[in-house]
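Incident review: delayed structure delivery

Summary: a single-chain prediction request sat in the queue longer than the usual turnaround. Root cause was a stuck worker, restarted by the on-call engineer. No data loss occurred. The affected request and its eventual output are reproduced below so the record is complete for anyone auditing the incident later.

Affected input:
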Amino acid sequence: MSRPIQLSFVKILSFLSLIERSVPHIDNFSLYVPSLDFNPYDVISIQNEAKRMMEFIGLKGYTTTVTPCLTDNGTAGNINLNNSNEVFIEIDNKMRANRRRFKEAVLCVMAHEICHKYLYSHGLYLEETNSNEYCSDLATFFVGFGLLTVNGCYEQYETTNKNTNGSITTTTHTFSTGYLSPQNYLTAHIVVCKIHNIDYLDGVSANMLTYISQIEKRAILSTQLNREAIIEKFKSESSSIANKKR
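Output delivered after worker restart:
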C-alpha cells in the first residue's frame, strides 16, 4: 500500500456529508465493540465476527466468507463487490508475521472492507479509485466502526539486535493500515463522536492517544472541532452535496 495521505478537515467533512446524504439514517448510533472471544488466528472466529459486524450496520441475510491469504499489490484486504448475498473478503496473511497488534489490524481491515459493501449496497460507489477508498475508510466512522479503524490503523515498535562486535542495532518497524493518516482517522473519530455526544477518548488505545493530544493542541483545528461548529459545517457540506446532486 502506498504511503497514507493527509486530507484537509473540510475534505473529511465533505466525505462524511456525502455518506450521510447517501445511506439510511442510523438510529441509536453506538460504537461497535468486538466480541470478547474474538480470535484473529482462527478463521471461524474471524467469519463469525465479520457476520456480527455486517449485522451491526444492518447488512443482514448475507453469507460472509473471510480468507487469510497473500493479497496482491500489498493491499491489506479485498472484497468482492456485486449484488450477491455471498460476500468474500480476503485479509493479507503477512500481517500475521509483522503486526504485534494483529487483532486490531484484522478488525481494522474488516471494517474497511465491510464498509465497501455497505456503501455499494446503498448505491454509493465512486468511480475514482482513491476517492472510493477514502470514502470507505471514513464510512467506518459513520457506521460505528471508528474505534476499530483508530486502534488498528497504525503501529510502530522497535526491535534490537546484538551484532557480532557487541554493538546493538535498533530497528524501528512502522505499519499503516488504510489509505489516510492516523491524524485523519482521529479527526473523523472526534467529529462523529462529538456529533453524537460520545466521549471520543473512551476506548482509544494508548498507541493513538499521543496523536489526539497533537490534534487538540492545534488551535485552528480545536476551534473547528467545537461541536456546534461541526454540526453547522456538516449541514453546510450536506446542503452543498444535495445541490450538486440536483
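Verification: Residues 102-121 form the longest helix (20 residues).
Action items: add queue-age alerting; document worker restart procedure.
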